Amino acid sequence: MNKIEHIGIAVKNLTNSIDIYQRLLNTDCYKTELVASESVNTAFLKTGENKIELLVATSPDSAIAKFLEKKGEGVHHIAFAVDDILEEMDRLKKEGFVLLNDQPKKGADNKMVCFVHPKEANGVLIELCQEIKWI
User: Fold this and answer.
1) Which helix (DSSP H) or strand (DSSP E) does residue 25 occupy?
2) What band does 133 get if pLDDT is binned at 50, 70 and 90?
3) Is the model's pLDDT at 134 over the cut of 80?
4) How do beta strands 50-57 and 40-47 pair?
5) Which of 26, 68, 116, 120 is close enough to 126 for a disulfide, judged by CB 3.0 to 4.6 Å?
6) Model's pTM, two decimal places?
7) Rounded CA gap, 112 and 81, in Å?
8) What gap in Å lies between CA 70 and CA 122, rounded to an integer?
9) Ramachandran bin of 130, using left for φ above 0, alpha for ψ from -120 to 50, beta for the remaining angles
10) Do 30 and 108 form a contact (C-beta atoms < 8 A)?
11) Which of these, 91, 90, 133, 135, lies nearest to 112 by C-alpha position?
12) Where do the domains of the chain lie?
């Protein structure tokens, strides 16, 4: 794992949360994106080398909706950039970690992603992110 790629924050209202974080971080939201496979709308903000991903559910049965119902708004996950997501997934499996998906899937912000079960990391959902390279 190379670095923290972003911190994901579950929110109830994306428009209001974008406004809050733009004012808080003194920067503009640079991208919003629907990730239909996860039933979530996202918004990204960057300050220095750090990124924040705001996530709002688009379906009441999505993982974000369930998270919000159980825990309320707040930190949902920490994402780490990796060079080779398949290699990192294999390494983590060999270390005994439980992954939430068998294969990487397309995520937001031009990334392939995979999640490590939060029970494996002291209650923190960990996301692996690999930039999709276009040839």
Assistant:
1) helix 14-25
2) confident
3) no
4) antiparallel
5) 116
6) 0.92
7) 10
8) 17
9) beta
10) no
11) 133
12) 3-131
Tokens of 106: 């397309």
pLDDT, tens only, 116-129 = 999 989 999 999 99
Q: Could you identify the residue written with the tokens 């939430």?
A: 100
23 phi, psi to nearest 5 deg: -70, -40
* Residue that the structure tokens 């991208």 belong to: 31
Sequence length of the chain is 135
With a CB cutoff of 8 Å and minimum separation 6, the contacts of 13 are: 56
- Confidence label for 7 from pLDDT (cuts 50, 70 and 90): very high
Q: Which tokens go with 126? A: 């960990």
pLDDT, tens digit, 9 for 90 and up, residues 48-99: 999 999 999 999 999 999 999 999 999 999 999 999 999 999 999 999 999 9
Contacting residues for 41 by C-beta, under 8 A, at least 6 apart:
14, 32, 33, 34, 35, 55, 56, 58
Token pair of 113, please? 């992603």
Residues β-bridged to residue 33:
42
